[in-house]
Amino acid sequence: MALSKEYTSEQLNFFRICYVTTDVLADGLREIFKQEWDKVYKSTKGEWKDDSRSGTDFYNGESPQNQKRNALLLATIKNGNRREWENFAHITQGRLSDTDFQNAIGKVDVGFQALRLTTEKNQGIKNQATFLTEQLLNTLKNLQEKENQRQVLADQLYKEVPSFCILPPEPAHDIGSRDCEVAKIAQLLKELKKANYNRLSYSYISGNPGSGKSQLAGLVAQRFFHEQVKEMPDASSFVMTINVASPDSLLESYTNFARQ
Q1: CB atoms within 10 A of CB 44
Q2: Which portions of this protein are annotated as coiled-coil regions (predicted)?
Q3: pLDDT in tens, 79-102
């Protein structure tokens, strides 16, 4: 597959001045033509309408000698559509230095200002630093579509995944509510979350074996989950029990979390 040609800054200057000459300058000249025509002939031949009637009026206003000498040009002008009037002087070397480009477009600006035409398009071309092509624009469009798809998936992840709370099964015997301890630890978690915004925070519960650490952690997690769901109903909240008895159980816990 052939590699795409890489254009130099001087070649880009040439392309830019070609555009100014064939499009921007031509548009200005067409506008001046209509202004002058309407000023001279509006009361007699009518306002220039870019139609064949206007073109025929122009053609008939030329002398027989001019009609013969400029037959090819007048054949185009006779249709009246100024958009089809174009004559471009070629620059043979196909490149233009920065200095020559600024000088050339500066002359166009001076001419436009003298004719009271806007130079807005020229200003944009002066600052253009890349040579956009249809292929490049399509590539940028495809990249934007991919980014939009990624954003949709991200929005679905954060907005459409239902909240869940997975805790160890409760023991067969009755357990106390331990409201005071639960409230104290839950408040601590809120303070940690606020102090470590967008970062992970941790809280450890320690105690003798059989003192009810696991049950207390479950009660705190359950309370924390319900408060999160109540405060932010449109957000997804997760509470997950991680089994760290062994590396295999830890991996299985994270796998289950990812599935949820």
Answers
A1: 7
A2: 129-156
A3: 888 888 765 444 455 667 888 888
